[in-house]
Design brief:
Layout (H helix, E strand, L loop, with lengths): L1 H5 L7 H20 L3 H17 L10 H19 L5 H17 L20 H4 L2 H22 L21 H15 L2 H7 L6 H4 L6 H4 L3 H25 L1 E3 L4 H20 L3 H20 E3 L5 H30 L10 H4 L1 H16 L3 E2 L4 E6 L2 E6 L3
Antiparallel strand pairs: 1-2, 3-4, 4-5
Length: 391
């Protein structure tokens, strides 16, 4: 209810917190049920990585749920492939979680190569898949598509081909989707940073063509910094387990190489299409690195759950201390300890406040107008549409 009433300025992300807790508890449950030593350690490393990297709920916005579901889905593929747990429930969970990861964010579609693992089961899949899941998927698809159609004239934004022609549906976003996709692709590939350094450089259209962006983007701080943080966290956690359970190098085999090849393919698709870490990168990159380490090395000692519990306690204490320090800095910065101060965010941020006042005046007038020198709002068919001033 609080989210509904006060979510306009800044959200509590309660749904993200629920996902965070449920995914951690689900992975922990798989550790207790698994029979493989390496799989137990894999899930342990993944849990600790999630606790450290995803503890700031608002850092990822609405990408949070999809990234957690992607990690959970990929982990189930690993469990299915290596843990001799080829039961119907695992397959149904994979289908269920991957579908909703895709519904949250389209970049979850990069999971698709992993379904090659089910080729042996292809003739039996229709009998394995729970009929209730099929019904849930169909209802979700239909309801989501119809809602999108009613709001935008497109069955699935931002896929341009799903938009109905504007001559048939007056409120269709068909004319805006191309520019929207251009903006998203250029933003994801650091075009803004490139343009600041090269004012006479490539246009957005040329930038996203033929991977002209690739060399520049992967050398930017925007790409390298989250990559370095991800590697540091995972390797630090892995070293702890390597020290505790005595590391050993294991021989590669076709099964391991096949799985790593599929995980690398999902990573490559992300890198070539939406190479932004908060757009799925933290999931695809972390899963590949952890999988590579776990499948390359083995452990001489058997996994003990009590050691993980101890690490969880230590990590939670560290994370809470970091969060307390962050809260102290925010209280000092905004001169308030009210936990709901952000519902009046516009009063604390002068730049935002000016836009907020402009927006209120325009909405109250019912006529539309300019919110700033960049944005304008127009009313069309009882809908408020936000456009750039030059559109």
């Amino acid at each position: 209810m609080f989210n509904f009433l006060n979510g306009g300025d800044k959200n509590l992300y309660l749904s993200s917190y629920v996902f965070y807790i449920l995914v951690v508890l689900t992975l922990y449950d798989y550790i207790k049920k698994s029979s493989s030593n390496n799989i137990k350690i894999f899930f342990s490393v993944l849990i600790l990585f999630i606790i450290i990297k995803f503890n700031r709920l608002q850092e990822f916005g609405n990408d949070y749920q999809s990234m957690l579901l992607i990690l959970l889905t990929l982990s189930l593929f690993l469990k299915y492939f290596f843990d001799n747990d080829k039961n119907k429930k695992i397959i149904n969970k994979i289908i269920f979680f991957s579908f909703f990861a895709f519904m949250f964010r389209i970049y979850a579609i990069f999971i698709l190569p992993m379904f090659i693992i089910f080729l042996k089961e292809r003739w039996a899949l229709l009998t394995i898949i729970n009929k209730k899941i099929i019904v849930i998927i169909l209802i979700t698809l239909i309801s989501t598509s119809l809602t999108s159609l009613a709001n935008s004239g497109c069955f699935f934004i931002p896929i341009e081909k799903t938009c109905i022609d504007k001559s048939k549906v007056s409120w269709s976003y068909q004319n805006y989707i191309k520019n929207l996709n251009l903006h998203l692709k250029s933003f994801n590939t650091s075009y803004g940073e490139y343009k600041k350094e090269n004012k006479d450089g490539l246009t957005k259209e040329n930038w996203i063509t033929n991977f002209n962006w690739f060399k520049y983007h992967i050398s930017t701080e925007r790409f390298l910094k989250p990559l370095a943080k991800t590697l540091t966290i995972i390797l630090s956690i892995f070293i702890i387990f390597a020290f505790k359970y005595r590391l050993k190098v294991e021989k590669s085999n076709f099964k391991k190489i096949s799985f790593l090849s599929l995980t690398f393919l999902t990573l490559l698709l992300w890198l070539l299409i939406t190479p932004l870490f908060r757009a799925g990168g933290f999931s695809y990159v972390s899963f590949f690195i952890i999988s590579l380490l776990i499948l390359t090395f083995g452990f001489k000692k058997n996994f003990e759950l009590k050691n993980l519990r101890f690490l969880l306690l230590i990590f939670m204490v560290i994370i809470n201390l970091i969060n307390v320090n962050r809260l102290y800095k925010e209280v000092k910065k905004y001169q308030t300890s009210n936990p709901f101060f952000f519902t009046k965010w516009y009063k604390l941020n002068p730049a935002y406040y000016l836009h907020y006042i402009d927006l209120l005046e325009i909405l109250n007038s019912g006529k539309g107008g300019n919110v700033s020198n960049i944005w304008k709002i127009i009313k069309k068919n009882n809908y408020w549409v936000i456009l750039r001033n030059n559109d």
